[in-house]
Amino acid sequence: MNILSVVGARPQFVKAFAVSQELRTRHDEVLVHTGQHYDEELSGVFFDTLGIPKPDYNLGVGSDSHGKQTAEMLAQLEELIEKEQPDVVFLYGDTNSTLAGALAGAKMDPAVAHVEAGLRSHNRDMPEEINRILSDHASDLFFPPSERAVEYLASEGITENVHNVGDVMYDALLLAQETALTESTLLTELGLDGEPYLLATVHRPRNTDERERLEAILDTLAADSRPVVLPAHPRTVERLEQYGLLDEFEERLTLIDPVGYLDFVALQADANIVVTDSGGIQKEAFFLGVPCVTLREETEWTETIDAGGNVLVGADPDAIRDALSNPPQSTSDAEPYGDGNAAVKIRQTLERYVE
Ligand code: UD1
Ligand code: UDP
């Protein structure tokens, strides 16, 4: 089988790390990097440290408005699909790279397969929610990570070729955890070995693009007695500079550049609490049994909330403070996102579908 996989942003490299190696045990994969993320610490480091195959193509689209960025990817992906003639176009998650792949693939011959299908935050102000819905409705084969995602697809009329395989980020974490814990030296470099600390990430436009909101979040975190390690997305650094807040928070927080996956897993595993607006990090904290405080009003990863290990606090200082002093604890033994063998199940399902 010939598979053309599309990746472009950080979490997609982590997902491809788990899945590409499995697909390549039996099939030919052309890996296409759209170039949505291009900085070394958001892109190159993942390929270098995780042994992800080097992309066969890098479309080099870079940053732009959503329309221009997606359009540039779409135009180039269409040409590539024409050239490579894959049986399957393989997509991950909910970024603009996902949407471009779905649109290009749906209007051409190959089957379109979507990993992380069926997730819904029910907040259409998030660009990712639009990307999820449209990508699902342009796909042929669906790999939702949970039963709830299966139900959401059904509620939108998608009931055929839906396979709950579990979550591929669980596979990735299980593959990387031991190496991360034995090889990462970051905690020592930060002087945090054996020390209590909070790990935070903030990158959603809703949290970064309004000065008061970003300041309220960071000010509340900085007031905690524990050090706060914050590997900052370039968007967040740009905004802090623009708001004249960068110097202040460089002093009050341990602001560092984004780190590679192995270092980030090591940071998460030892943190007292993870505070984030990321999708993937909510799940990883849950898998690692680390309390997660989510800087959003809603989440598509509701199973982590139901299990008790995650709490939604938005940007409300009182709610953040409460959660930091009474961290959420998972009380459930359920494994809502499968058993960490999603990649194998995906490969086997693809084989049955294409034959
Ligand atoms: C994107 C995804 C988001 C995902 C995130 C993962 C969309 C709509 N958003 O958000 O779902 O959670 O990736 O991290 O697809 N920039 C750099 N260097 C880079 C890439 C970006 O400096 O290598 C800066 C640019 O100023 C750019 C901004 O970050 O404008 C935002 O980048 P973009 O890829 O548009 O969105 P993300 O916020 O990264
Ligand atoms: N991550 C990383 N280094 C960092 C921050 C995050 O390797 O400095 C990893 C994290 O472990 C997870 C993924 O990136 O696997 C999450 O990506 P992000 O939060 O950017 O996107 P989202 O999941 O919200 O789409």
CATH topology category name of the largest domain: Rossmann fold
Total of DSSP H or I helical runs spanning 4+ residues: 17
For the record, the count of structural domains works out to: 2
User: Structural class from helices and strands?
Assistant: alpha/beta
Overall average pLDDT: 97
Q: Tell me roughly what share of residues is in helical segments.
A: 40-55%
- SS elements, strand count: 12
- Beta fraction of the residues? 5-15%
Keywords: Isomerase
InterPro entries: UDP_GlcNAc_Epimerase_2_dom (IPR003331), WecB-like (IPR029767)
Organism: Halosegnis rubeus
Pfam families: Epimerase_2
Summary keywords:
355 residues; alpha/beta; Rossmann fold; 2 domains; six-stranded parallel β-sheet; 49% helix; 14% strand; binds uridine-diphosphate-N-acetylglucosamine; binds uridine-5'-diphosphate; EC 5.1.3.14; UDP-N-acetylglucosamine 2-epimerase activity
Question: Can you tell me about this structure?
Answer:
It is a single chain. The mean pLDDT is 97. Helix 15 (302-306) links the parallel strand 11 and strand 12 (310-312). The termini are close together. Helix content is 49%, strand content 14%. The chain has a six-stranded parallel β-sheet with strand order 3-2-1-4-5-6, with helices on both faces. It has 355 residues and is of the alpha/beta class. Helix 3 packs across helix 4 (96-106) and helix 4 runs parallel beside helix 5 (127-137). The longest helix is centred in the first third of the chain and has 19 residues, at 66-84. The chain contains 17 helices and twelve strands. The chain has helices spanning 10-23, 40-50, 66-84, 96-106, 127-137, 147-155, 168-183, 186-189, 205-208, 211-222, 234-242, 246-252, 261-270, 279-288, 302-306, 317-325, 342-354, and strands at residues 2-7, 28-33, 57-58, 88-92, 111-115, 141-143, 198-201, 228-231, 254-256, 273-276, 292-294, 310-312. It has two domains: 2-167 and 338-354, Rossmann fold (3-Layer(aba) Sandwich); 175-325, 3-Layer(aba) Sandwich (Rossmann fold). The structure holds uridine-diphosphate-N-acetylglucosamine and uridine-5'-diphosphate. Uridine-diphosphate-N-acetylglucosamine binds next to helix 1, helix 5 and helix 11. This is UDP-N-acetylglucosamine 2-epimerase (Non-hydrolyzing). GO terms for molecular function: UDP-N-acetylglucosamine 2-epimerase activity. It comes from Halosegnis rubeus. It is an enzyme of class 5 (isomerase). Keywords: Isomerase.
